[in-house]
Design a protein that fits this description.
With about 300 residues, the protein is of the alpha/beta class. The protein is built from 13 helices and 8 strands. Helix 8 links the parallel strand 7 and strand 8. Helix 5 packs parallel to helix 6, helix 6 crosses helix 7 and helix 10 runs antiparallel to helix 11. The radius of gyration is 19 Å and the shape is globular.
Length: about 300
């Protein structure tokens, strides 16, 4: 495991090509987001949802579900099928309504004993591969409540903890509480990865250097700028379209054919904030094919 810069597991966004793009530009670790553990446990064919590739460095797979048994079964199946995966993560922080209503994500923060049960079950299910197991949580019931959750998952065998410095109720509003992340790190017996409002690698490394965390995770800032892990910011339209070309090339190489929906989403994010780009972004939003997107870009 590398305790450095992590690309956050961004649901419906951080696909294989995007993860590879971010790693090309400095991300030291990445993670396949929100894999439905129950679906895989019920049907091994669903392993196809896990778009992991051996070319990815220090790759994690994030599992979501409400059953320790299903999460553990899916974890074992993933490691048997994709032994190059470097670490596993149990999502206990996603605040989306759909995830919470299914009993997974941040709903598990209401039942920390279930999180601990899942960690222990995954450790047993993957014992032969000895893969590190982590949890991703949010702040719950203040410092003491969150510290209690951390202790429980540590005692269950978690190898590291990823902490987003917001509550589930906050979603992505307000500011991440890095002072609380720092205090939780001082109490933890395993490495802590800090998450929330990290704008670039310089800021993330600053948190590490000042003892707030052992590594840092970047999500939303990377969505608009995959070069954020190198503290680079493409300023011109040409530089941003070059990133889009890289993304499309990676899709072609690894998938055979670019996905228009994914390419459009990246084009709209990569061009965000460009001066006098509103008309162009509006045209991109109306496109239906990759060829149309390239033409408008």
């Amino acid at each position: 495991m590398l305790w450095g810069s992590f690309l956050a597991p961004i649901h419906d966004y951080s696909d294989l090509a995007f993860r590879l793009l971010c790693q090309k530009h400095g991300a030291e670790s990445a993670c396949v987001p929100l894999v439905n553990a129950t679906a895989i446990a019920r049907d091994p064919a669903k392993l196809a949802m896990v778009d992991a590739h051996p070319d990815e460095r220090d790759l994690g797979v994030q599992l979501v579900g409400d059953s320790a048994e299903a999460i553990a079964r899916a974890a074992g199946m993933i490691m048997d099928a994709k032994g190059f995966v470097s670490w596993l993560n149990i999502n206990c922080g996603c605040p989306s309504i759909r995830t919470v209503e299914s009993g997974g994500g941040s709903a598990l923060l209401e039942k920390p004993e279930k999180i601990a049960e899942a960690v222990g079950a995954v450790k047993r299910a993957t014992a032969k591969s000895d893969v590190p197991v982590s949890v991703k949580i949010r702040i719950k019931d203040g410092l003491e409540g969150t510290a209690r959750i951390c202790r429980m998952v540590e005692e269950a065998g978690a190898d590291f903890i990823i902490i987003h410095g917001r509550t589930a109720e906050q979603g992505y509003s307000g500011k991440a509480d890095w002072e609380m992340i720092k205090e939780l790190k001082t109490r933890a017996s395993v490495p802590v990865i800090g998450n929330g409002d990290v704008k670039d690698a310089d800021a993330g490394n600053g948190f590490v250097d000042r003892g707030y965390c052992d590594g840092f995770m970047i999500g939303r800032a990377a969505m608009t700028n995959p070069m954020v892990f190198q503290d680079k910011r493409p300023g011109t339209a040409e530089e941003r379209f070059a990133l889009l070309d890289e993304y499309i090339s990676l899709q072609e190489r690894y998938l055979g054919k670019p996905d228009a929906t994914a390419v459009k989403m990246k084009a709209l994010n990569f061009t965000r904030g460009l001066p006098r780009a509103a008309a162009m972004r509006d045209r991109i939003a109306r496109t239906k094919t990759v060829e149309e997107i390239i033409r408008e870009a």
